[in-house]
């Protein structure tokens, strides 16, 4: 987690002050529950809320001596509360605090990421409708295939991120669990009602069975979801990068006044933001594998997961938050060139209509193998001429083709609108009645 790729609202979830504040609330709420159950004096709970506070530097100093972060925190709080602090952490274990805190942090992070997704979806939808019928060439294997529209490209991205949002909502629901079950998770020294009380106060659900930690399959699923979203970011970023290549130049990142693309070549306008997004997506995905490995802990617990999670939680959420915001900005300001799209669409002498001719020939009675041979032999001439020749004119001059298809029917096979007739149907599927 570095400042260059961090936004304050997400970063603040992971700063020490926030973490210790959540710890304090967990401990204080647990003490309230115990006081209501008559396990500890009510005065103790009141004293903790009234006088309880902490200092990050003091906690760090105590931890340097005791080598235990939760003990250091409790010691610091006790310095302010006084004798009543002896009732803090009754029957609890460190994981009750650490895991419940992590659940709170990940839930808050998920809420911000869902907001990010909403912002991106809004931009993608607006731009998709803006270019719903803007024709462009569809490519398979990087090679011209058949016509599509730029709006369809964006509709595809919208549907993908909409799925990602739904997965993130589900992942948030799954990670939002509270464990206040004590050593090895048996509730031997802490009443299960304490867990229920703390969970309600923090907006969490109780963990049905927590051993001594919240099961890490929940965390693996959460971060796997972030990894999938990161991959969707990279897919769209890669599309923009390809479209910005000089030979293509159908769209490009916004280039602001005064911006410079190269230290050596003044003419350069590089896709630096989408290249950056590709790298950030790789980092988010890189954090997924350790979360899978964290699932297999020894018996009721060990802390082999702990050091990894201290990186993963902040870095993955902060990085994805930044990446989603950056992608939203890229797509909002993306420069789109319909004239260049049309030029590229016409670039190869009508080859993009070859399937339509193939189908027309079969409808006219030709065997599919023969129809394919007839179209391909003319198409290869166009290909080898680098688009200088016209497929339509070659087909008209081919006696075997013209014997089956008159000129007017051949011309109809080169109608661009034919390929776009179901765009509205696809938009209806993606966006509904909007």
As laid out across the biggest beta sheet, the strand order is: 1-2
Query: H/E order of the elements?
Result: HHHHHHEEHEHEHEHHHEHHHHHHH
Tell me the distance between the termini.
39 Å
Q: What ranges have pLDDT less than 50 throughout 5 or more consecutive residues?
A: none
- What is the structural class? mainly alpha
Query: Tell me, what's the shape?
Result: elongated
Instruction: Give the integer mean of the pLDDT values.
Output: 96
Q: Biggest β-sheet, characterized?
A: 2 strands, antiparallel
Give me some keywords for this one:
two-stranded antiparallel ribbon
Describe this structure in words.
The chain has helices at 8-13, 16-36, 42-51, 56-66, 69-81, 94-130, 150-175, 192-202, 217-243, 272-286, 288-293, 306-333, 338-345, 354-363, 368-384, 391-397, 399-402, 407-412, 423-431; strands at 135-140, 143-149, 177-178, 205-206, 251-252, 335-336. With 434 residues, it is mainly α. The strands form three sheets. The protein has a two-stranded antiparallel ribbon. A two-stranded parallel sheet has the order 3-4.
